[in-house]
Every structure is written in C-alpha cells, then in structure tokens.
C-alpha cells in the first residue's frame, strides 16, 4: 500500500487491457534511443512519472512509454518478456524483496553500479542508506530506490492526554500504555496489529530487530530460534494476546487498521503508508486524534524496517541502456524527487527532499519528523532474504501464531528454524 493524500491523490487507473501506455509517438524501432519504454506497477510514483515523462519529451525529444500493471500481472509480464530476452522495454520498476534475487540470478537486471556512482552532482549518497543497501546484492547495484516505507507507531493522542500517559518511547512503555487503556468489556483494545500467519511477518520484523535478532544471521543462515528472535516473537504475541482484539490471528493490515480507524484501539503499529487512511474523514473516526510516533526502542534500540516498495532498474537485454539511465537519472534527481514528494505525495528515498519544508508540506508533521530522523536503526528488509520469500513467510510466521495463542514459542521457533534452513539450503 502506498501513501497518498485524499485531496491530492493522483488516480491510478488499471486499463481493461492490462497496460497503460503514455506517449503515442511512433518514432523509430527496437534499439532507437529516441524512444524508451518503462514497465512498472500501478502506484503514485508511476502517476507522477507520467507527468515527468511528458516534460522529459519536451526537453529532450525522447518519448517515454509507460506500461502500468497490478503487481501480480507485472511480475508475470516481466517473467514472460525476460525469459524470452526481450529488448522491447528498457526500464523496469519492481519490488526489491519479491523479485530482485531471482531476476539478478537469471541475469535479467543490468548492473547499475557505475551509473549511480559516476555523477557526483546526481549524488547517490543523498539516498537513505537503508534504501541504498536494499537495492544491492553482493556490492552490485540493481536499481534506484524511488519509494520508501517504514514501520511507525500510530496512537490516540486524546486518550494518552486524558490518562496522563506520555507517548511511549520504548516497547515496555508501549506495553504499559496498552495495558492501562485496554477495555475489552467495552469493545476497546490497547493495541491492534496484524496477526495472520503471512501478513504478520513484515510487522513482526521490527520487533525482532529491536530485540537484537533477525530472520537470518550474517552468513545468511536461519536465525529465528535465537534468544533474541524468540524474545521478539514472545513480546509481539503477548501484546496481541493480552491487549489486542479477538481473532487477531486472522487479521492482516486491512482488518487491524480498520479497528484503529473506527476508534476502537489506542495503538496501531504498521507501515507509514497507511497514514492517510486515518486522516480520511470519509473512512476514519480518528482524524483529529491520531498521532504518529517513531517505532519504540527495544533492548537493542529502535530498529525498524525502512523498505523500498519500488525500485527502478534497467532491462539487461535493452539496447538503450545509456539512454535509459539518462532518463532514470533525470527523473530521480533532487529537483524532480522533490516534485514527486510535494505534488504526488510519493514517499521518496532522497534525504534532501524530506529536509525541504515546501516539499513535505502535504505530509503530517509527525511523519516527516520520523523520516528525517531515521538514525542508524532503519533496516532495509522486512522479511527473509531469499528467492522463495512467500514460502519463507509461511514458515517464519508460524511461531508468531504460537506466541499470540500463548503456546511454546521456543519449540515452535526451533521447528520453524529447521524448516527455514532447509528452504535456504535448497537455493544454494
């Protein structure tokens, strides 16, 4: 889910034929550098890119065609074309954690390391460090991060004020506040979060990181049965079991966020891309009372995911790689990044854009403060790092269900760790 303001939202339209094409100029054929084709997912970034592409054509004479798809159709389209080594598109916007490992192993993504490092004025170092890390494998850069998303804490400022509770800065303070405000007899809960087996994994990640663990160790081996990871599982499970709504193990972000939006929970921890859900007067009862807070500190600090839901890379089979880079570089420069942030409320990856007061005026101040002060705790992944990520989420989500239900988390984590390691070994 991507952030977008109700008033300034650029509509995303999925055409019946499955692709939206911008730029109808019929100039040149395959390999002709006065025409480029982008394949991407429907998103606010793509809507903003359409306007940038029109400007780019006016300035350079290069026509930029944009084909936009839903995520599943997008990945199917990529695989069909890239398996055939197709050169009929040049630029590809993709989800890093879902496909980058597979696509790079197959030789489908161009190495962009020299491109991003060669132009000091373009300033690769201006991109958030977690975002830069997220688009690299073994030191090779496979794309430019153009959208970001991070784990934050939403809270009811009115209830905290009435109860004299300070905004929690630590996970222990969060637990204490949730306990004090929990009132299940009246249908009100201290906290709402995802609890379903697969959706829970991404949100659980920040808790595990903040207890000093991760899904994998530095060598890439399974690490979900470590004391730190188990502590993260147990803390998450205790919060939902003791202070969360009934049926949490069946809840993804849609169900959990609705409880908070309806005014039935004091806290909700999830992605900042959901911020405008709670500021939409047509769908939220907490428009005037929602607050935005940094993910609370655990024993190892405030270590939360700061991921890249959309990255722009170059098709390895494109005959226009240099021209493709020139457009990517232009569309992601500081000026145009600020334009996307301010006009399309795209949560971009450049630090300079977030530091600009005029560019961030359409975002809630509390959210802007969090992004400006990511610190060293931002982690560039929110799920296990391997090609079979869907299967991995099924496995590592198991101990979370056990924790929420009050079972033996240590035993569940040991079993899941063995299964997860087997999955990792299958990719060696």
Written overview of the protein:
The chain has helices at residues 44-60, 71-83, 96-105, 113-118, 129-134, 157-163, 171-181, 200-210, 227-243, 253-261, 321-331, 334-344, 351-354, 365-372, 389-396, 398-404, 409-425, and strands spanning 35-41, 63-69, 91-94, 136-137, 140-141, 144-156, 189-192, 265-271, 290-294, 306-314. It is globular and about 65 Å long. The protein contains 17 helices and ten strands. The protein starts with 34 loop residues before the first strand and ends with a helix. The model is unreliable at 1-31 (pLDDT under 50).
Unreliable stretches: 1-31
Largest sheet: 8 strands, mixed
Based on CA atoms alone, the radius of gyration comes out at 22 Å
Q: How much beta, percentage-wise?
A: 5-15%
Label this structure with key terms.
428 residues; alpha/beta; eight-stranded mixed β-sheet; two-stranded antiparallel sheet; 17 helices; disordered N terminus
Lay out the secondary structure.
Blueprint: E1 35-41, H1 44-60, E2 63-69, H2 71-83, E3 91-94, H3 96-105, H4 113-118, H5 129-134, E4 136-137, E5 140-141, E6 144-156, H6 157-163, H7 171-181, E7 189-192, H8 200-210, H9 227-243, H10 253-261, E8 265-271, E9 290-294, E10 306-314, H11 321-331, H12 334-344, H13 351-354, H14 365-372, H15 389-396, H16 398-404, H17 409-425
Parallel strand pairs: 1-2, 1-3, 7-8
Antiparallel strand pairs: 3-10, 4-5, 6-8, 6-9, 6-10
Short description:
With 428 residues, this protein is α/β, with parallel strands linked by helices. It has helices at residues 44-60, 71-83, 96-105, 113-118, 129-134, 157-163, 171-181, 200-210, 227-243, 253-261, 321-331, 334-344, 351-354, 365-372, 389-396, 398-404, 409-425, and strands spanning 35-41, 63-69, 91-94, 136-137, 140-141, 144-156, 189-192, 265-271, 290-294, 306-314. The strands form two sheets. Strands 1, 2, 3, 6, 7, 8, 9 and 10 form an eight-stranded mixed sheet that branches.
